[in-house]
Amino acid sequence: GIKIGVCALQGDVSEHIRAFEAALSLLGEGGDVFPFRKAADIPLCDAIVLPGGESTTISHLLKKNNMYGPLRTFKGGIFATCAGLVLIGREVDDPRVEPLGIMDIAVGRNAFGRQRDSCEMAVTIAGDDQPFCGYFIRAPVIVSVGPEATPLCYADHIVGAVQGPHMGLSFHPELGGDLRLHLLFLERLRAYATAP
Ligand code: GLN
């Protein structure tokens, strides 16, 4: 079965584990979803989750644990939400965060402003006519999408993008029980893994 590692240095790890376990069971598939804290675990995964949390803290901890290199050369798919989105792009508007440069996107932190610190918003997913309830918590936005990446989700701004097997989202799809984005990620991951 598939091995999905959730980067557990900081952030909402258990919610991501539960959501991917639920998605795998919907698909009737076995698999292993587990937290990881060591760089050596990265190449053992088929997919990695970079959770929400505090991107400056996670950036610092990724450096301290020597994870930048193994993440940049990782061959599987990365599912990056909120603080994870801040980390996965090529550019971010805060010098305290070192971007991984895995997705061709520029990200702005805390972009919804203080009056909308946390909110629920209807998100439009490209190719899906049912709105998705997005939970935004001091959420970043995707400021620009370069030619390697493709916008996927919209809510006033671009709030989701894909690039190959990777998916980056401003909001928290692991909250709320709607598994469409997890299922789409797993479907795309399979497509890229079996591509010639
Ligand atoms: N604002 C946070 C950051 O930029 C992200 C918040 C979250 O992950 N919920 O790190």
Give the beta-strand count.
12
Strand content: 25-35%
Biggest sheet record: 9 strands, mixed
String of helices and strands: EHEEHHEHEEEEEEEEH
- The CATH superfamily label reads Class I glutamine amidotransferase (GATase) domain
Give the tally of structural domains. Answer: 1
Give the structural class.
alpha/beta
Strand order of the largest sheet: 2-1-3-4-12-11-10-7-8
The rounded distance between the terminal residues' Cα atoms is: 21 Å
Continuous helix count: 5
CATH class: Alpha Beta
CATH architecture term: 3-Layer(aba) Sandwich
CATH fold title: Rossmann fold
Give the names of the bound compounds: glutamine
Radius of gyration: 15 Å
Poorly predicted regions: none
Helix content: 25-40%
Binding site for L-glutamine: 53-55, 109, 137-138
Enzyme class: hydrolase
Pfam family, one: SNO
Keywords: Glutamine amidotransferase, Hydrolase, Lyase
Question: How would you summarize this macromolecular structure in one to three sentences?
Answer:
With 196 residues, this protein is α/β, with parallel strands linked by helices.
